[in-house]
Amino acid sequence: MTDTPDLDALRSEVRAFLAAEAPTGWRDASRTQDDFVRTQRGWFAKLVQAGYAVPHWPATFPGGGRSLAEQKVIYEELAGADCPRLLLSFVSTYHAFATLHECASVEQQQRYLPRILEGETWCQGFSEPGAGSDLAAIKTRAERKGEVYVVNGQKVWSTMAQFADKCLLLVRTSADGPKQAGITYLLMDMKTPGVSVRPIHQIQGDEEFAEIFLDNVEIPVSERVGEEGKGWAVAQATLASERGLTLMELSYRMRGALSRVAALIRENGRQDDRGCLRDFGELVTQVDAVCAVADQFLDNRINGIERIGDASIVKNSYSRALRAYARLGLRLGGMAEQYIAPITFGDLNTGNWMADFMNSYAWTIAGGSEEVQRNIIAERMLDMPREPKAWVA
Ligand SMILES: Cc1cc2nc3c(=O)[nH]c(=O)nc-3n(C[C@H](O)[C@H](O)[C@H](O)COP(=O)(O)OP(=O)(O)OC[C@H]3O[C@@H](n4cnc5c(N)ncnc54)[C@H](O)[C@@H]3O)c2cc1C
Predict the structure, then answer these.
(1) HSE of 158 in the Cβ direction (CA atoms, 13 Å)?
(2) What is the mean pLDDT of the chain?
(3) How far apart are CA 239 and CA 244, in angstroms?
């Protein structure tokens, strides 16, 4: 895609905004979790005000209704600038938005979507200790009593749940019939009595996700998305966003971050090292391919084309390229890069190659593991034979 004069003007406008407003010092190794949250909230508010936080939302919202080409320009500029990724609000602006926009009632949309732009943050309560890849095996139980569901159970790996106001919650309302048929989708206020959140302390020092314990939590029936027992279909909207749209921005960020690898090659005097240049060339090609796949995915969605497996292709291409990016950076950085930055919250391009390298492995699992995405592509897209039942836990 080449820029038209309008796109050129938008690019200059975004660039000028970023030059004036992008936060500084956010990679500082001495920052605390409070610093992280403050920076994230402040930066999100500025992006909303400038109209660059939710270009993929409908035009009825400030900054929404952007064409694919305009979204691309905005993401490219954000990715290329030295500004933090919105780790605290991506579940809200992508996953919660997609779910509410595609599946919720008009009343729920009107209640929650504007609040996201005011800074209300969401987390995703899908995975459980016994249900990850096999998500339909969830056991968190919701029993209807009059106008409320009484919920008991446990969720795990909920990104940023300790800072969230609301939760996209999958619960089991029936144990009869196929596993998927007994699942219901609820919107839960994290301050409801009976909800407790325990952050998970990770090996690199930060607490990116948390466990959520639910003890007789009462959630009004009006907070249900779709019908009782039809939550599995609603969850697909959340998951498609997780594996598709979110990754478009991330792919551009990775392309922007290639300049860090190029800088390392120059700093190490390896401009004439053919092996190093070959590895870099392969990486650039791989990252460009990821961006092309992500563009195609978004283009298809805008045109109403939804193919099972497309989001899985974006997800797997991204996570493979991310590993290659981080591995090359770590190899070039040498011993000096063995130090792990304390607070990175699963970001890439943290300024610390070891942290990027470790975070790149989280992406083999986040949003559905690579193996399971391959199964989806093979079985549901390419119509290959299903995996033998005995292999499935
Ligand atoms: C960074 C990160 C953020 C996350 N954020 C959230 C969040 O916000 N909310 C949330 O609900 N969850 C979140 N998760 C959890 C994530 O969705 C699950 O970890 C994921 O679905 C895998 O489930 P599991 O951990 O139970 O592993 P398992 O399902 O037990 O898988 C273990 C291994 O077995 C393999 N495997 C399993 N089944 C098959 C099969 N049929 N064929 C071949 N191989 C198979 C998997 O590929 C994997 O390698 C997050 C995870 C990560 C890493």
Answers:
(1) 30
(2) 90
(3) 8
Cβ of 162 closer than 6 Å to ligand 1, yes or no, is no
Point out the ligand 1 atom lying closest to the alpha carbon of residue 127.
Answer: 11
- Cα 362 to middle of ligand 1, angstroms: 10
Give the mutation target among 372, 375, 391 for probing the ligand 1 site: most ligand atoms within 8 A of CB: 372
Asked whether residue 244 carries a pLDDT value surpassing 70, the answer given is: no
How remote is the CA of residue 10 from the centroid of ligand 1, in Å? 39
Enter the DSSP assignment of 185.
E
Q: Does 242 participate in catalysis according to the annotation?
A: yes
Rounded to 5°, angle at Cα 95 from 90 and 100: 130
Q: What sign for the dihedral angle of Cα 218, 219, 220, 224? A: negative
Interval 83-122: pLDDT, tens: 888 889 999 999 999 999 999 999 999 999 999 999 999 9
Catalytic one of 242, 267, 371, 379: 242
- In the predicted structure, residue 393 carries a pLDDT above the cut 50: no
Residue 245 has a pLDDT of 65
* Dist. CA 133 → ligand 1 center (Å): 5
For residue 259, the one-letter residue type is: S
Alpha-carbon distance values, 36 to 24, 152, 219, 233, 391 (Å)? 12, 32, 31, 35, 42
Ligand 1 centroid, distance to 132 Cα (angstroms):
5
Euclidean distance between CA atoms 345 and 367, whole angstroms: 16
pLDDT tens digits for 319-363? Answer: 999 999 999 999 998 777 776 666 666 666 677 788 888 889 988
CB 36 near ligand 1, within 6 Å: no
Does residue 54 contact residue 78 with C-beta atoms inside 8 Å? no
**Ligand 1: does its nearest atom lie under 6 Å from the Cβ of 344?**
no
Picking from 220, 109, 128, the residue whose alpha carbon sits closest to that of residue 171 is: 128
What domains are there in the chain, each with its CATH number? 5-86 (no CATH), 121-229 (2.40.110.10), 244-391 (1.20.140.10)
The larger pLDDT score, comparing residue 200 to residue 349, is at: 200
